[in-house]
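[job 4471] stage=fold_predict status=RUNNING
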Amino acid sequence: MLTKDQLSDLTKLYKINESVVLREYLQLLALHKIYSFSKSSNIFFKGGTCLHLLYKAPRYSEDLDFSVNMSESDFLDFIKIPFKELEKENGFVVKDKKSLAGKTFLLTYKTDLVAGDVFVRFDFSFREKILDPRKNIIETTFPVLFNNYVNCLSEEEILSEKIRAILTRDKGRDYYDLWYLLSKNINLNFDFINKKLKYYKTSLSSDKKELKNKIEKLAIADFVVDLRPFVPLKEREKLKDLCGYIKDYILKKIFSSN
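[job 4471] inference complete, writing structure tokens
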């Protein structure tokens, strides 16, 4: 586990709260353990933390999200193995939590390195087929040595899920992540987007006006509150101005040529 000195050094390096740094360390330990098993080839990392750790998005994240390509019973037989090893080796506690869909687990780490316990939530979805599976490498300055690939969604597929997220929930982080992907010129794959929206019995063609309205009506206060814990300290004062820029950027990228 991280020492106090290591945590202090990493906090100075990344210029963010110690609890955020420690949580990322726990996320890396969990990913390292899960993907050390061959059966993890059917588990695909995705979402904001995937963007941060694999695709170098600047914002930090709190949850680990996955799509699973195996039966729920086979998955449950498998996942208890890496979770038990994490508990044994690091003193974590991992418990399953009730969820409306899929399977959710919460890792808890009791420590005196920071004030309060540190949590990592795992969300596993079984509902949809992976459209563009990839293998990637995690490179990190944290003291976690990866020697296995991490199976994940492509940036195109994550972008498609981010558009769906904007249409189905209200979190400023989704707009931030979409802006990041569009700024990298990641392709807007409308086939992917519509396949993602199919689970909500809609399509981008029927929801395009709603998407534009949601982007235009994104409230600065909501954006700042949601993003503030996940960006470096010096970036937090810039979030109000960034919100307007991100809205204009996304609208131009998606709607100016369509």
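[job 4471] summary: The longest strand covers residues 118-125.
[job 4471] exit 0
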